[in-house]
Write a structure and sequence with these properties.
Butyryl-CoA Dehydrogenase, subunit A, domain 3; about 75% helix; single chain; Pectinesterase_inhib_dom; pectinesterase inhibitor activity; signal; mainly alpha; Invertase inhibitor; PMEI_plant
């Protein structure tokens, strides 16, 4: 969906702060309704995308846990399961605050998500021997979605 120039400027301002501009921009454009959104609208998109991704990842990790027998990998996945539960709950709470126009409450709820999510990335590099992280692509996207939500939410005047 093509965005009007004001919306495009806001999307660019947010996405230039992300580790991957293209993913950020594409995510906003795919969810844009009517080609126009202020920071509140963009925050709504980012929050919903982050919550959806965290929820599906939490389910995926639970599925992986049922099929893994390697104890080291199982322990790493338990860290990820806990991490994604925190992220999912943080965005669930953030979305409730957002719906009540409590943007400070939303940001306070969501600010715990980056550290929680990072634990799912770092556990795979800190556990000897280093394990292949089955969530590396998901973690990268989740990291960007969390940052998009926090940066756009912080831009609400």
């Amino acid at each position: 969906m093509a965005a009007d120039s004001g919306t495009e400027d806001r999307i660019n301002r947010i996405c230039r702060q992300m580790e991957e501009f293209a993913f950020c921009s594409q995510t906003f454009h795919q969810s844009l309704k009517g080609g126009s959104a202020d920071y509140i609208g963009l925050t709504g998109i980012a929050n919903n995308q982050a919550y959806t991704k965290a929820t599906s990842t939490f389910g995926y990790v639970e599925e992986l846990l049922r099929s893994v027998s390697d104890p080291t990998l199982k322990n790493a996945l338990i860290v990820c399961e806990n991490a994604y539960k925190v992220v999912k709950d943080a965005f669930g709470e953030g979305i409730q605050s957002f719906a009540q126009r409590d943007y400070r409450g939303m940001l306070n709820a969501e600010r715990i998500a980056p550290r929680a999510q990072a634990s799912c990335t770092s556990i795979f590099s800190t556990t000897p021997p280093p394990k292949q992280n089955p969530l590396s692509q998901i973690n990268r996207e989740m990291r960007i979605l969390i940052a998009m939500a926090i940066v756009s939410g912080s831009s609400i005047g």
